[in-house]
Amino acid sequence: MNPALLGLVTIIVGVGGCLGYFYFSNLILDKFIFPAKGPNAGVNINRANQVRPWLFLFPAIFALGLYLAYPVFETLRLSMTDRTQNDAFVGLANYQQMFGESKFWEAMRNNMLWLIVVPAASTAFGLLVAQLTDRISWGAAAKSLIFMPMAISFVGASVIFKLIYDTRPEDQNQIGVLNAIWLQFEGGAGSVIFLKVLPLIMVLAFGVIVAYVGYLLIKPFITADEKPGGLGIIAVRIIGIAVAAWLVITSIGSLFGIVATDLPYGEPQTWLTIPFYNNFFLMVVLIWIQTGFAMVILSAALRGIPEETIEAAVIDGANPFQIFFKIKVPQIMPTIVVVWTTITLTVLKVFDIVFAMTNGQWETQVLANYMFDKLFRANDWGVGSASAIIIMLLVSPILVWNVYNARKEMR
Amino acid sequence: MDNIAGSKSGLTWAVHISVAFLVALWLFPTLGLLVSSFRTTDQISSSGWWKAMFPTEQTIQLRTGGTAEAVQQDGLYVVEGNLLTDEGGPGMGSKPVAFGVSSREIGAYEIGETAVYSDGDETLTIAEDGAYRYTSVEEPGRRGQRVFLTAVTPAQATLDNYKTILFSGSGQDNMAKAFFNTLTVTVPATIIPIVIAAFAAYALAWMDFPGRALLIALVVALLVVPLQLALIPLLRLHLGIGIGKGYLGVWLAHTAFGLPLAIYLLRNYMVGLPRDIIENAKVDGATDFQIFTKIILPLSFPALASFAIFQFLWTWNDLLVAKVFLIDATGSTTVMTNQIVELLGTRGGNWEILATAAFVSISVPLVVFFAMQRYLVRGLLAGSVK
């Protein structure tokens, strides 16, 4: 059958089937199983109303259970079996094998970088745009254009950015924007300012901010005034401190790197093959897409701030920067956290960008692509499932946090 | 506000300029793709797309006429013609600036000069309008002589790439089939979850039953479960029960993966509907089914639209689910995203094909985006778990 026709039939069968199911199941319930007449009318109506929610819920519960809940446990089970040995139980052997692979640790390291850089950059840019466009006449149009990449597929965005990173031999005209700009740098004063001093300041600022966050996390342990909190919070603090320490060390390392490197001026670069830095070229794609999302949510939050608080600050003589950082940002902090976690979830699942642009070559592997590699190229379902479980583990703190908040809100 | 704290016109200008800069930065990549899709192969490979609005200088290799066009004059063989309008020439609008007769010196002679070949027996003259005169002592070869012409070509746009991609291209270059495959995946995968989710959301919002809070928490939890976990078990399931790889499988998968967000969005919206309407209808004797179809569904249109856009964008742009559940070894059910990834591998340097293919694929979501942005924003605001 023609796929389009098949699609049409599916829509009719699917939608008609659903509506028919809901209609007839209600009808049968009311007319035949618990008829609202005769001696038991009252009891029957009550009984019918107890059963009815489950009629409404059944298709959804069935689909969710089969397609989302069951696979979590099945994947957990598969991660402990070996397909080549007829699905025999092998305990943690798959995990052992995975932890022994350097490609896995490369994916973990890159994922950590993605997890920090992309949410931070998207949220920062989103907040910046939201604040800047808040009071200008053409703000809505500007926001709409910055929001636009949200509609573009990861694959489409990969093509767009591959064109930007494109490289031609030295004697030809560069058609990639990045190389065309790069070739403008000749090693003079401008090059030093843009390619040495500016990155130096940026990395330094990043390192200082991270160090400060680390200090805030560690403070309760070394001073007596504050309590470090319950067991869970202590665990979160320790993880946070470890990540912060790693980031500070990485920043210091790259500071030396920036100073020491001799930049190959005048040579076109194949950007996606430069180890370590190519990760950032891939991250740019996701930041470009996610900034619009952060902007929309944060813009709404900024509008929700009570005017009085800002007016009071203005009367007290606060300058625009103080108003922004001391009045507005603290008030929208919960929304910033929401945006941050939502983008974190997107980052953990990022697959298409890496798959389309480098396919994990040149040290750009990430977990989701590593998993796809194991599943469908190496055909190793055990290790593939194990890496999926790792993704699930990374997601689960956010999952718990979301459920906790949702329950709190419902009360 | 600004006036209260005194004049800030400088700062206002800074804001305008930085917003303009950011918008330009965000638009620039997409613009590059769009412009590239309207350029010819030669134009794309000879200059960056940002120069497309200006005339470009390019060097092309052409051939003079051969034996067939040669006439004998004064003991010499003479071939005359026009390089600009000959087959493969850059066209009459172009302006020749230099030419050469050997690949080592492709721009050695100016227009109007007479080039003498290294053996001394042959000469070539090219005029401003592209007319050339080639003379030779011996009879010229059948295929004519090589000429390297450097000409300034005016900016021009072509729709040929779109013709290739949509209609005339062969094999991988033709996206028409993939376009319809994508559409076939998308439409049912958008409509079916809405129906299922709407009923469930109504039950979760307006019906009292034990375990309701638990179910809502479960939906919130499933909202973030990475679909990577579902790939292997479901593929095994599909292969096991005979669905295999195909449209049915991908529809089912997309439906289920979209359900948590759909239920969550719709429930949050329905809970906010006025209680009075529903209770009045109940007093008047309406059944739950009637309340749902006659009152709740029409009132929930904005939330339904929000989710429909989300699900449409997500299924249209998806690569992973299609790769796992749909595309089999024959590749006849390939979707656009997958075909573009394959093109990236095989036609990595042919930017006119790649850019056009990518733009065809992103144009539909862009139209939907700009037409229904209001609902998308509303959905985003409601859907991010607070």
Automatic annotation (TrEMBL), chain A:
Gene Ontology CC annotations of this record? plasma membrane
Superkingdom to which the source organism belongs = Bacteria
| All copies of domain ABC transmembrane type-1, residue ranges | 189-402
**Membrane topology type:** Multi-pass membrane protein
Pfam families xref list: BPD_transp_1
**Subcellular location as annotated:** Cell membrane
Q: Which is a GO BP term held by this UniProt record?
A: transmembrane transport
Q: Which residues cross the membrane?
A: 6-24, 54-73, 112-133, 145-165, 193-218, 230-260, 280-302, 336-357, 381-404
Keyword entries, A-Z:
Cell membrane, Membrane, Transmembrane, Transmembrane helix, Transport
Instruction: Return the similarity comment.
Output: Belongs to the binding-protein-dependent transport system permease family.
Q: What is this protein called?
A: Lactose transport system permease protein LacF
Protein's organism: Boseongicola aestuarii
From TrEMBL, chain B:
Q: Where are the transmembrane segments?
A: 13-35, 178-207, 213-235, 247-266, 295-313, 353-372
Source taxon at top rank: Bacteria
Q: Which UniProt keywords apply?
A: Cell membrane, Membrane, Transmembrane, Transmembrane helix, Transport
Q: What does the record say about its membrane topology?
A: Multi-pass membrane protein
Xref: InterPro entries: MetI-like, MetI-like_sf
Limits of the ABC transmembrane type-1 domain: 179-372
What the record says about family reads: Belongs to the binding-protein-dependent transport system permease family.
> What is the protein's name according to its record?
L-arabinose transport system permease protein AraQ
Instruction: Give the source species.
Output: Boseongicola aestuarii
Q: Which gene encodes it?
A: araQ_1
